[in-house]
Amino acid sequence: MTKIIPLFIFLTLCNNAIGQKRTSVELNINDLIGTWNYTSESRNNNLVLYKISYLKKDYAGGIMKFSSDGKMTKQLSRKPKKCGNDTSSNLNISGNWVFDKKNNILTIKFGKFRSAEYVILELSNNKLILKRIITE
């Protein structure tokens, strides 16, 4: 009898932990609002972004900026140092973002015909992990 009680407690705790893992994670979409930095670093083919508060003068990389009204600005930046006749400049692409709360899918619409869809794997106030949904 004394061995059954600890076993029962252990199984109860395991069942609660497994049950918590099965439930979907609630994302606070307000955490998405702000400026995000992404680099060529990827983890398991996922896009990893970190929130930034300001841009350095010699910044190079990619930026996604989301506002509370659903507007999105994506900026692709040049390399920090120009070489020779390099006249490349920043390219700003505007769009709108739409979040599907049920499926954790972030859709970024560029104009009428282009869009990109991402599954949000993780979203906190300073880290965002996206996985691109490829549709053919």
Low-confidence stretches: 15-23
Number of strands: 8
Mean pLDDT: 75
Helix percentage? 10-25%
Distance between the termini: 61 Å
Percent strand equals 35-45%
Helical segment count: 1
Radius of gyration: 21 Å
Query: How can the largest sheet be summarized?
Result: 8 strands, antiparallel, barrel
Tell me the structural class: mainly beta
From N to C, what is the helix and strand string?
Answer: HEEEEEEEE
Which outline best applies? globular
Main β-sheet, spatial strand arrangement: 1-2-8-7-6-5-4-3
Q: Could you write a compact summary of the structure shown?
A:
This protein has 136 residues and is mainly beta. Helices cover 14% and strands 45% of the residues.
Explain what the structure shows.
The protein has one helix at 4-22; strands at residues 34-43, 46-52, 62-66, 71-76, 91-100, 105-110, 114-123, 127-133. It is mainly beta and 136 residues long. The protein has an eight-stranded antiparallel beta barrel with strand order 1-2-8-7-6-5-4-3. Strand 6 and strand 7 form a beta hairpin. The chain is globular and about 75 Å long. The termini are far apart. Residues 15-23 have low confidence and may be disordered.
